[in-house]
Amino acid sequence: MRIVHYVNQFFAGIGGEDAAGTGPELRDGALGPGRRLAAVLGDEHEIVATAVCGDDYAASHPEFAAELVASARDRGAELVVAGPAFTSGRYGMACARIAVAASEAGLPALAAMHPENPGLGEAAGTAVVESGATSRQMRDSLDRLAAATRKVAAGEQLTAEDGRIGPVARTNRLADRSAAERAVALVLTRLGGDRDATEIPLPDFDRVTPAAPVADITEAVVALVTEGGFVPAGNPDRLESARASKWVRYSLDGLDSAESGTFESVHGGFSTQWANADPNRILPLDVARELEREGAIGGLHGEFLATTGNGTTVADARRFGMEWAAELRQQNIQAAILTAT
Amino acid sequence: MNAEAGLTRVIHEVRELDLGERTSYSAGRLTVGDESVRDLLRGPALAEVRLACAAPGDSVRIVGALDAIQPCSKGPGGGGVFPGLLGPALPAGRGETHVLRGTAVLAAGYLPRAQEAVIDMSGPAAPLSPLSATHNLVVDFTPADDAAWDDVEAALRRGLVRVAAHLAEAALDAAPDAVEELPEPGSTSSDRPRVGVVLNLQTQGKFKDVFVYGRSLSGGLPTVIAPGELDDGVVVSGQYGHPALKNPTYLQQTHPVVAALRGCDELELAALVLCPEPVDQANKELVSAHAARLCAGLGLDAAIVTKEGGGNADADVSLKLDRLEEEGITAVGILAEMAGRDGTGPPLVVPPTKATALVSTGNYDERMTLPAVEQALGRERIALLDQASTDEVELPVAAIYCAQSTLGWGRLTCAETG
Predict the structure, then answer these.
(1) What letters, b where the CB count within 10 A reaches 16 and e where it falls short, cover A176-197?
(2) pLDDT-based confidence at A204, cuts 50/70/90?
(3) Could you say which of A180, A242, A271 has the minimum Cβ distance to residue B259?
(4) Residue in B330, B345, B363 closest to A314 by CB
(5) Side-chain half-sphere of B214: how many Cα atoms within 13 Å?
(6) pTM for this predicted structure
(7) CA end-to-end distance (rounded Å), chain A
(8) CB within 8 Å: A171 and B415
(9) What is Dmax (Cα atoms) for chain A?
(10) Quick one: CATH architecture of A2-165?
């Protein structure tokens, strides 16, 4: 089968974080880990091209995936393989998006990453197989990916035995009894000694390691970001007041303060009366500009990023966070102040 | 121990509801005196009110549902029910209360911060809402031109309880369908395990607050009341967000977990603990630890914890479950899942760490299609979708009124797709 393999800028040999803004492109043949993957796969399959994109670019331009999959089709791809991404979050998200885009385009696809990779949440129903945590486990990870690739190429479904990981969909249904009656039954079960009975398996949350402190804040460009539903008056892009599906960005150029009537909060989770009387309460632009003038910070980023944190799913919130981080890194921002409401 | 303490609930079933010249109740038929009820709702903040009836099975969609109330009365004049709102704030929950079962007074329309709530009286969404199963008197309103929204909300809240008491008064002399004796916790002794109900009430300011004897619990500590106080309307909702997760006054009066425990021969309903849902972490922790100590002091063996509201209210349940387990009390939480449209995301925003016994009221992001209906009440358009209210619409479960209320009325749940 003709395979297109996806790797990030690092595994393609383009560069590290300095090259994370590299845009999407297709290169001939196998590259980096793709060479070993091709060797393990043997003669039956051929990696005809390697799709490459920088991690920051991929995180801040979700459309990269559909573009690369379209190019892969032009190159005659019959199967798309992505990774392994190990525990790298942006790379994992990119691999998941590539696999999802390929599936949507009707191509069989799979990705590989560590079960704790936050990108796993983006995989929807697409196949992901487990990899090690770091590239030190490259060899074993590629062996497993190759075996899974053969199975997918043969039109078979991957199972936990193949190392398949990823979210399992939970769907709504009507139970025989009301939630109140089930809660009372669960009390009886628990009092009877069963310590495991539950209807909701506990989610595993990843722990985020804080970034190193900014070395010299007087040299750093600082961004203001918020989940306070903060938008220009009139909400031109219709940011949702609850269950936001997106985030928005607007310019702060030439503005000294967030004036009432110029900005507003559309957040549905609190009374916006005081926020709208003085929008600096949500996005502290007035004070940030003072600090900028005093030289207390190196500079203020020319735009702010905003969403609404109200009934937002963890999966969406995680996606926004990864996209914001990538976006800010690409703009060489060293610090961000996230005002929460 | 006061062996006499308890509530006698005198039940009158409502099987038919219509509008007429004067309010009357006879043999399951409730007629609402159109003009007298509109008089009860009259006030400077409301320019006009309109009444309509919606029955289970009707091709009717109620859009912008606000609060709903079960009619009840303790005697002529309306005293004793909804204390602190309808009459003086004196302890309720004892004596005799007449209840009109199978009916509700329901307001629908626009209020600030009220997320659009939908009730379908028939079709696929009907099994999800307790207010699809009742004969509803729907109150729709036009605010006075110069009225502040706070005053509009207060006028509605007072008006609805007045109407609820007025309607039940019509049944005071009717022969009851049932008489239920509900002893107060502590008035009898048993060796059954003692189970408490921990009821978190949303306290997020205007239009997102719940009133106990007419006042908000905001800023306060947990308190213990008798379950019968709920039947008498001590807890009245002024919370209009989170349609699917809403706990309207109707569900407080008929609290499904309280009802399930009252009906359980193996467990004793031992206490009802009311808690605010603070808006900051430090106070969430304080209230949770304090609630757990109260439960320990009450000698509880187990507790069931419920919430009102979206993501941050998960913390109010999870922290209490953890603190209760630390006190050696078996803790069960009822929670809604927020797992994304496809149901693959993490289901809870703040999960417990020690307690793990959870009941699910379903995934709030999953979407469903509601077929077109003949008539819409409340609002003519669904603003969220910019569609006529009578159209076929696709909505998340989150928009269906009370579909996931953690007070536990519904049968909706979630399971892995197998």
Answers:
(1) eebbbbbbbbbbbbbeeeeeee
(2) low
(3) A180
(4) B345
(5) 15
(6) 0.81
(7) 52
(8) yes
(9) 69
(10) 3-Layer(aba) Sandwich (3.40)
The pair of three-digit structure tokens given for residue B417, joined into one six-digit string: 């797709």
Output DSSP code: residue B83. B
Handedness of CA B54, B56, B59, B62 (dihedral sign): positive
Share of chain B above pLDDT 90, in %: 88
CB atoms within 10 A of CB A52: 25
C-alpha dihedral sign at A318, A320, A324, A330: positive
Q: Does the distance separating the beta carbons of B346 and A121 come in below 8 Å?
A: yes
Q: Using the Cα atoms of residue B146, residue B148, residue B151 and residue B153 in order, give the sign of their dihedral.
A: positive
Q: How far is B403 from chain A (nearest CA, A)?
A: 11
Residue A14: its pLDDT value, please? 95
Residue of A283, A277, A264, A171 lying closest to A224 (CA atoms): A283
Rg (CA), chain B: 20
Measure B321 CA to nearest chain A CA, in Å: 13
Mutate to test the interface with A, among B385, B413, B414, B417 (most CBs of A within 10 A): B413
Q: Which residues contact A15 (CB under 8 A, 6 or more apart)?
A: A9, A22
**Which residues from B are below 8 Å from A202, CB to CB?**
348, 351-352, 356
In this complex, the residue of B193, B267, B363 whose CB is nearest that of residue A170 is B363
| Structure confidence at residue B2 (pLDDT) | 64
- Reported as a single tens digit per residue, the pLDDT across B2-56 is 656 899 999 999 999 999 999 999 999 999 999 999 999 999 999 999 999 999 9
- How many angstroms away from the CA of B263 is the closest CA of chain A? 10
Q: Which residue of A has its CA nearest to B114?
A: A268
* Contact of B217 with B66, CB cutoff 8 Å: no
Q: How many CB atoms lie within 10 A of CB B9?
A: 20
For B418, other C-beta atoms within 10 Å of its C-beta total 5
Of A125, A191, A314, the CB nearest to B193: A191
Pick out chain B residues at pLDDT < 50: none
Minimal CA separation from B304 to chain A, in Å: 7
Q: Strands A303-306, A230-232: parallel, antiparallel or unpaired by DSSP?
A: unpaired
Domain with CATH 3.40.50.2300 in chain A: 2-165
